[in-house]
Design brief:
Blueprint lengths: L6 E2 L2 E2 L11 H13 L30 E6 L17 E13 L6 E12 L6 E12 L14 E8 L4 H16 L12 H7 L19 H24 L1
Antiparallel strand pairs: 1-2, 3-7, 4-5, 5-6, 6-7
Length: 243
């Protein structure tokens, strides 16, 4: 049975409802390893493109979605191992450490993944962009002699980093956490004096707890009432003496 080629004019074209989301292990074992050893691929789904000959936004395919390409590594110096990753408008710069790709079955290291970021301009004064590339290579060094039938292939996964509501959400959560730990004394307290005057209450009076069985009248108010009663009794006594 003849295999269907899903790549047309360097662009991946899948039927409706189909998606290509391989794992790191599948990319290395099922595609890259077979490509290096010239074995039949599971499907003709990854195009061959020299990634460093194009800027990331000019590569074939939809820029919004992640794209996969077979590419060959170009050595920067004849006697060195550094790759030439310069493009027309900038360059790809490696960041972080390479990650090992291991199989789930026996934890065997089958490949390595390098993360790169695209910079506009020329090094070392380039400006960082949101274009990211994951470069997959085999764990065992590939022979440099092309007569052995093995080329220095890699798989490049290129996508545009999304910046959205996650940053704003984190900022809002951080503000909420910080506000919860503010001291109580720093928060101003406002009293509605107009409402208090209408009700005839005094804000300076201390409320009495309901457990004491009182009617809500303060001790200061009771002392004022006793003082008024004593003064009225004295007035009555003075009136009797005048009579």
């Amino acid at each position: 049975m003849e295999k269907i080629n899903f790549v047309k004019d360097g662009v991946l074209r899948l039927p409706p409802g189909f998606r290509f989301h391989p794992t790191d292990e599948e990319l290395v074992v099922q595609y890259l390893k077979r490509k290096v050893h010239s074995f039949p691929l599971p499907a003709s789904i990854i195009p061959e493109v020299d990634v460093c000959k194009h800027d990331p936004w000019e590569l074939p395919g939809d820029c919004v979605q992640e794209r996969f390409f077979f590419s060959t590594k170009e050595v920067k110096y004849p006697n060195g191992n550094r790759s030439n990753r310069a493009t027309l408008s900038g360059y790809w710069k490696a960041t972080g450490l390479d990650k090992q790709i291991v199989t789930l079955k026996n934890n065997q290291v089958v490949g390595m993944k390098k993360t790169l970021v695209f910079y506009r301009g020329k090094p070392p004064n380039g400006s960082r962009t949101d274009w990211i590339m994951h470069e997959y290579r085999l764990a065992t060094p590939q022979p440099k002699n092309p007569t052995q039938g093995m080329e220095n292939w890699v798989i490049c996964r290129i996508f545009l980093k999304k910046r959205g509501n996650n940053v704003n959400k984190i900022d809002e959560e951080t503000i909420a956490i910080v506000s919860d730990h503010k001291p109580v004394e720093s928060n101003p307290v406002f009293y509605d004096f107009m409402a208090a005057s209408k009700k005839g209450t005094d804000l300076n009076l201390k409320p009495v707890s309901s457990s004491s069985g009182s009617s809500g009248i303060t001790d200061d108010a009771c002392s004022c009432n006793e003082h008024e009663e004593n003064s009225s009794n004295l007035d009555d006594v003075s009136n009797l003496r005048k009579i």
